[in-house]
Structures are given as C-alpha cells and as structure tokens.
Amino acid sequence: xxxxxxxxxxxxxxxxxxxxxxxxxxxxxxxxxxxxxxxxxxxxxxxxxxxxxxxxxxxxxxxxxxxxxxxxxxxxxxxxxxxxxxxxxxxxxxxxxxxxxxxxxxxxxxxxxxxxxxxxxx
Length: 122
Description:
Elements: E1 2-6, E2 9-12, E3 17-24, E4 32-38, E5 45-50, E6 57-59, E7 67-72, E8 77-82, E9 91-98, E10 111-112, E11 116-121
C-alpha cells in the first residue's frame, strides 16, 4: 500500500492551497481517508476525514469553515482544499487510510503517506 501526498508549498497568510493524496495497493473506494498534520515540536493532530461513500465528513474545529476534504474514487485520490490559510496551519500534512468508520483518532488509521510540507508566512 502506498499513499503519495503532494501539493504542499510556501504561501502567504490568506492564500489558498490544495493538497492531494493518491493511493495504490488497496481498494480505495472501501477506505475512509483522513488528513492529519504535524507542526515542529508538536504531536500529529487530526485535520479532516471523509467516508468511503463521500457521505460523512469530520473536521477539526481549528479548520472548520476554511478547509474542505473531498475524494474521487475513480482516481484513487483524496484532496484537502485549504482556504484562508494562517501561519498556525504550517505543518507537514499526512494522508491516512482506514477500513474503520470515519474517525478523528490517529490510532484507527492503518496506512500513512509520507507527508507534504505546507508553510504559511505572515
């Protein structure tokens, strides 16, 4: 199983950015997909998750209303659209997969990508 994240970069506060994660080696349409992030010196934290059926989405309070998770099962890809970015959104963003129900808990995710760096300057 491979989860390949991409799309990170350096942006200014208030800008938008979309990160993507393409999966291989699994039946993507059967998996809940999540995004987590880890800032320097901090623990990895939940950002957003989406069910295999597109019908359920969860967001961290810190990104609700600014970030949108979506997926395209035909392309084996999950997206995270990030708007109104803030310097505190700076982190490495990781995608993850689980056959469990949609969850905010890191321990419920079985597969992890390598991460993509998002840096927001003030």
